[in-house]
Design goal:
about 400 residues; single chain; Rhopdopsin 7-helix transmembrane proteins; mainly alpha; elongated
């Protein structure tokens, strides 16, 4: 019983191991006197291996995560370079997408770097012994702030596209550039405030002294395991709810907005006047469809992790678990990988779904005279349609 409960919450490493009150079942384990403020708990032969990384986790952490980090930084930085280099890419929509790219990079740097640091500094699974209270707080605030910001930015893009396509005359009377700057700044501030309110859910660094079985294969292992935990059970519940609720709310909002956009585009495709500029119409539709695909991919990749987190939150209250401890670790591992991949694919979607974005990438990274001439032509051609994308 004690080993099972410990492993279940070690599994919750993605939640920063906030469930420290059930990490060790003190009613079923004999603890020794505290050592340096940490109560020591003996581990059984059956349970001790579960304190270590699985082979699959070792491969994923040592090989796959660095690849994802490099790809994520490369794709997002290339997109930022293209937007900065090509004048015709200085649009309202791209202002949101630039901030989305910045959020994705910050998320990857903070989260993956933290996973790699824990992996290479301790043989124990999800061991935060090298952390401080400050690092527990700062790392989690940054990761949650970027997550909230990305969710809100996608919703802001959907709202901006909805207003531009479904209410074009009202949209034309607005100073969309000034409005977008205010919205983006507000979203970052709101996200940071939400992240700060979650501080009590992970600001307490809790250490446990471990007594390994009397076997020489455990002699080299650390005798202390630590994790960032909550200060009160209410803080844990609040943190879980605040992480899940905004995600599913913005999911519903995006589904509604893009459903209305698709409906409007369909109607306009049937009733559009022949005198309307064909180029403007094509750009508008391509950008709209690109954003729809981009948003769909975001929620497809992020939903498994959020659904799994909700399931585990309720499953932790059950006597009989739905998944074995090892099964939980595998599920968390792959749902987490999907969430990381989400921060990699956005620029790839832009190039795959939109010819204008592909041309901009070619122009930005080209060095020939022909490319520079093409850049001038593209910027002049797209000046009148910049606000449509």
């Amino acid at each position: 019983m004690a080993g099972s409960r410990l492993m279940i919450d070690l599994m919750r490493e993605s939640d920063n191991a906030r469930y420290m009150d059930t990490h060790f079942d003190v009613n079923n384990m004999n603890s020794t006197q505290p050592i340096n403020g940490s109560v020591c708990y003996p581990l059984t032969e059956d349970f001790a291996p579960r304190m270590l990384y699985l082979k699959l986790e070792e491969v994923i952490t040592a090989v796959v995560l660095p690849i994802i980090l490099v790809l994520g930084l490369s794709t997002n930085m290339s997109f930022l370079y293209v937007v900065g280099k090509v004048r015709s890419m200085h649009t309202v929509t791209n202002a949101y997408l630039v901030n989305l790219a910045v959020g994705d990079m910050l998320f990857l740097i903070v989260v993956i770097s933290d996973k790699l640091w824990s992996f290479y500094t301790s043989e124990l699974y999800s061991d935060h012994s090298t952390r401080s209270t400050f690092s527990c707080t700062a790392l989690n605030i940054i990761s949650f702030t970027t997550l909230f910001t990305c969710e809100f930015l996608l919703t802001a893009v959907a709202a901006e596209r909805y207003y531009a396509i479904c209410h074009p005359y009202r949209s034309a009377r607005l100073d969309r550039r000034h409005l977008s700057r205010n919205i983006i700044a507000s979203l970052w501030i709101i996200s940071a405030c939400l992240g700060l309110t979650m501080t009590p859910a992970f600001c307490k660094l809790t250490s446990y002294c471990i007594i390994w079985p009397d076997d020489e294969k455990y002699d080299y292992l650390p005798t202390e395991w630590a994790a960032c935990s909550y200060v009160h059970i209410i803080a844990r519940i609040y943190g879980d709810m605040l992480r899940a609720i905004p995600f599913f709310v913005v999911l519903i909002v995006n589904v509604v907005l893009y459903s209305l956009i698709i409906k409007e585009l369909t109607n306009k495709g049937k009733n559009e006047c022949e005198t309307q500029a064909k180029t403007s119409r094509i750009i508008r539709n391509q950008v709209a469809m690109m954003l729809i695909v981009n948003t769909a991919v975001f929620f497809a990749l992020m939903s498994p992790f959020n659904v799994m987190s909700v399931i585990m939150m309720f499953d932790s209250l059950r006597t009989k678990r739905l998944l074995t401890p090892e099964g939980r670790r595998i599920c968390i591992l792959f749902t987490r990988l999907l969430s990381y991949c989400n921060s990699v694919v956005n620029p790839l979607i832009y190039k795959a779904m939109n010819a204008r974005y592909r041309k901009a990438f070619v122009i930005a990274f080209g060095c020939s005279k022909e490319n520079h001439e093409a850049a001038d032509v593209t910027e002049k051609t797209n000046t009148s349609t910049a606000f449509t994308s």
